[in-house]
Amino acid sequence: MEILETAAALQTLTETWRREGRRIGFVPTMGALHEGHLQLVRTAAAENDVVVVSIFVNPTQFNNADDFKFYPRTLESDAALLQGTGATVIFAPSVEQMYPRPSVVRFDFGPLERVMEGAKRPGHFNGVATVVSKLFHLSRPHQAYFGQKDWQQVAVVQQLLADLSFDLKLVSCPTIREEDGLAMSSRNRRLRPEARAVAPRLYEALQLTAAALREGLSPGEAQQQGAEWLQQFPDIELEYLEVADAQTLQPAWAGPSAEQPLVICLAAWLGGVRLIDNVLVE
Ligand SMILES: Nc1ncnc2c1ncn2[C@@H]1O[C@H](COP(=O)(O)OP(=O)(O)OP(=O)(O)O)[C@@H](O)[C@H]1O
Ligand SMILES: CC(C)(CO)[C@@H](O)C(=O)[O-]
Ligand code: BAL
């Protein structure tokens, strides 16, 4: 499995693949790979002829300098993990390759990014949309694979595809969890043991909130119950826990229905590490 480091090299390769009529799957990542990423790659390999996996810690989507600085970078072990998953090529560019000059185009996703991750991480989705657009142009995928752990990101990228008429399909894949329920995340490896021990409570809080909704509590009441339950864990500093329409991500006013599935999303700090998770309530 080759590692390409320049935009030109990837473009040449994907141009050839397109000419040969090969179906291209694409999995964008920021590296520090875990089983969640590997599942995306395996799915992409099963549904396409060739698979590009990008590994790039994208500076423009970080609004916190320390988060960017301490984001794990483990290219060598990532390449080893990808062996046998069906990845054809790794694209691991430098910042200069991706941003030969500072980008000035700005994306505004309206109400979609005025909530949750968009509200708490100003500029985050502009950075995601910028880099994802560039990566789509370079990898020329027929299908791109994203994880539902980043539910809002999937909604934003769907909007991006529609607004800019990208000719590719977004495939969103289920969240892969540790045995104790914690959503796999590259940032988990930065958790200190005390924080790691309490981290599964995040998923438990989401499940409790989902159960409250199913029992007939209003979204507001269920949300409050989930947030209050988390208060018993002093190592968890909740940033938000929100019950939202699963499509529009706007705050939900009624319980789940066939027409309006809901998503419960949260973000929390555990000893300096910020984690997110969500569950769908249909
Ligand atoms: N546990 C998971 N299950 C399924 N997909 C996942 C999981 N974790 C991440 N992904 C997906 O992998 C892709 C790359 O994500 P990324 O490299 O940011 O990993 P990450 O583990 O989410 O890291 P972090 O949350 O610490 O930034 C995204 O589409 C993301 O949604
Ligand atoms: C899609 C992505 C690779 C863009 O940098 C990133 O936001 C991520 O890892 O989810
Ligand atoms: N998985 C989302 C990337 C980020 O947190 O910046």
Automatic annotation (TrEMBL):
A GO molecular-function annotation: ATP binding
Chain residues that bind ATP: 30-37, 147-150, 176, 184-187
UniProt main location, coarse: cytoplasm
Pathway: Cofactor biosynthesis; (R)-pantothenate biosynthesis; (R)-pantothenate from (R)-pantoate and beta-alanine: step 1/1
A GO cellular component entry from the record: cytosol
Catalytic residue positions: H37
EC number: 6.3.2.1
SUPFAM superfamilies the record matches: Nucleotidylyl transferase (SSF52374)
Catalytic activity: (R)-pantoate + beta-alanine + ATP = (R)-pantothenate + AMP + diphosphate + H(+)
Catalytic class of the enzyme: ligase
Cellular localization per UniProt: Cytoplasm
Binding sites annotated in the UniProt record for (R)-pantoate: Q61, Q153
Residue numbers binding beta-alanine: Q61
Keywords assigned by UniProt, alphabetized: ATP-binding, Cytoplasm, Ligase, Nucleotide-binding, Pantothenate biosynthesis
Pfam families in UniProt: Pantoate_ligase (PF02569)
GO BP term, example: pantothenate biosynthetic process
Misc. comment: The reaction proceeds by a bi uni uni bi ping pong mechanism.
Family: Belongs to the pantothenate synthetase family.
Binding partners and assembly: Homodimer.
Function (record text): Catalyzes the condensation of pantoate with beta-alanine in an ATP-dependent reaction via a pantoyl-adenylate intermediate.
Protein name: Pantothenate synthetase
Gene this chain is encoded by: panC
